[in-house]
Amino acid sequence: MGRVRVHQHVNPLAPYFRFTPNPIEIEKIFANPEMPILLDIGCARGRFLLQMADLDKTQNYIGIEIREALVNEGNRLAQEANLTNLHYEFSNAMVNLDKSIANFPKGLLQTVTIQFPDPWFKKKHAKRRMVNRQLVETVVEHLAENGRIFVQTDIEFLAEEMFELFRENEDLQEIEVSENPFPVKTEREKAVEDKDLPVYRRIFEYQKSKGQRSKVK
């Protein structure tokens, strides 16, 4: 079966995508629901998660994606590979991430990745960008102590915009990174590096007990 064809970009503010998703029920989708979770927001075709779930069976992996056809394709591939630690969810993270992960058990969300989200270059479309204050607040609210958020993009202005939104939260420690900390790269990351173009990356670590922001170089 060939790759599912979908539009490269969809408007997350369109009425069709402003639905209210059902909360993800961890105990219903994973063979071992007590393992730590890696959540990939805007996972696209989800090949990063597919490979990660196969390499590391000590974590559960969830991909959230706004294009339903890619979610269905991802879940089919996960089932065919018998990956009981991988699940894809159809949801509009920009609008409803809080509802999708509302029932996550406390302390299980160890890692969040946001990789190469749509930049929406035009000024009038900036409101469509996935990472906003509401999304940041939701991620931090559910993240386990010492949990990490990995953000990367090849668009410099978008990188600074996203990094600044995370910097606003005083419970996050910013860590500069030059390399992807995971053993798997996304398709977009490979394409950018093949062209010898820069990728802008940061890790933000949740340390609520410190109550202050610091920057590690």
Task: Describe the protein's architecture and organization.
α4 runs parallel beside α5 (133-142). The radius of gyration is 16 Å and the shape is globular. It has 217 residues and is α/β, with parallel strands linked by helices. The termini are far apart. The protein is built from seven helices and eight strands, in the order αβαβαβαβαβαβαββ.
Q: What secondary-structure arrangement, pairings included, does this model have?
A:
Elements: H1 26-29, E1 37-41, H2 47-55, E2 60-65, H3 68-80, E3 86-90, H4 93-100, E4 109-115, H5 133-142, E5 148-153, H6 156-167, E6 172-176, H7 187-194, E7 200-206, E8 215-216
Parallel strand pairs: 1-2, 1-4, 2-3, 4-5, 6-8
Antiparallel strand pairs: 5-7, 6-7
Helix pairs in contact: 4-5
Query: What is the annotated CATH architecture of the domain at 92-216?
Result: 3-Layer(aba) Sandwich
What is the N-to-C succession of helices and strands? Answer: HEHEHEHEHEHEHEE
CATH level 1 name of the domain at 92-216: Alpha Beta
Number of strands: 8
Whole-number radius of gyration? Answer: 16 Å
Output the CATH homologous superfamily of the domain at 92-216. Vaccinia Virus protein VP39
Strand order of the largest sheet: 3-2-1-4-5-7-6-8
CATH fold-level name of the domain at 92-216: Rossmann fold
Please state the oligomeric state of the protein chains shown.
Answer: single chain
Main sheet overview: 8 strands, mixed
Treating each run of at least 4 consecutive H or I residues as one helix, how many helices? 7
Mean pLDDT: 93
Strand content: 15-25%
Give the low-pLDDT segments: 211-217
- Class by alpha and beta content: alpha/beta
> What is the CA–CA distance across the termini?
46 Å
Overall body shape: globular
Instruction: Give the fraction of residues assigned to helices.
Output: 25-40%
